[in-house]
Amino acid sequence: MIQSILLILLVIGAITGIRWFKQQPQAARRKVMLRSLAGAAIFLLITLAVTGRMHWLFAVIGALIPFMRGALGLGIQLLPLWLRRKSGQNTTGNNQPPARQPLDLSIDEAMQTLGLEGDLNSGNITVTMVNDAHRRLIQKVHPDRGGNDFLASRVNRARDVLIDRLKV
């Protein structure tokens, strides 16, 4: 009999709480929801500790640790994007990166970049030599192999400058 009365009071309280919750503004709803979830979690943990059934919770936490490490790494990578969005930057709809200045290399700089020595005008350097030097260097500085975009673009531009000069 007491259990039935408690159940009826619980249902009436839930209905009243839901009506009150729907009347609240959005900001207040969020605050009430977070506080309710935190209170329910604390109540659950205390109940599990008192009844001696906390052991399964630690097993679940132990199983989730590897997944949480991956999620933490992903969160750290996405944090700058979230902060930029939160601060209101880049809201113009222009998602294109800023234009970069082209790499204007002289013939000497291009030869130094590719590690070539000799006189370009006398025929000591050929297109094959330029391509071989480019292939050797790009394997080391390519972004897919641990290099960076700047070095790869500089090596590519040096090759283009030298080949254009040799074809003339």
Large-scale geometry: elongated
Which whole number gives the mean pLDDT?
Answer: 85
Largest sheet: none
Strand content: under 5%
Query: Given the structure, what is the number of helices?
Result: 6
Rg, Cα atoms, Å: 33 Å
Which structural class should the secondary elements be placed in?
mainly alpha
Order of helices and strands: HHHHHH
Give the termini distance in whole angstroms.
Answer: 102 Å
In total, the number of domains comes to 2
Portion in helices: over 70%
Task: Show unreliable segments.
Answer: none
The tally of beta strands, per DSSP, is 0
Keywords: Chaperone, Membrane, Transmembrane, Transmembrane helix
Domain J: 109-167
Transmembrane segments: 6-21, 33-50, 56-79
Protein name: Molecular chaperone DnaJ
Please give a handful of descriptors for the protein shown.
single chain; 168 residues; mainly alpha; Helix Hairpins
Structure in a nutshell:
The chain has helices at 2-23, 26-51, 55-87, 107-114, 127-141, 149-167. The protein is mainly α and 168 residues long.
Indicate the topology.
Elements: H1 2-23, H2 26-51, H3 55-87, H4 107-114, H5 127-141, H6 149-167
What does this structure look like?
It comes from Cellvibrio polysaccharolyticus. The chain crosses the membrane at residues 6-21, 33-50, 56-79. It is a single chain. This protein has two domains: 2-72, no CATH class; 107-167, DnaJ domain (Helix Hairpins, Orthogonal Bundle). It is 73% helix and 0% strand. It contains six helices and no strands. It has helices at 2-23, 26-51, 55-87, 107-114, 127-141, 149-167. α5 (127-141) packs antiparallel against α6 (149-167). The protein starts with a helix and ends with a helix.
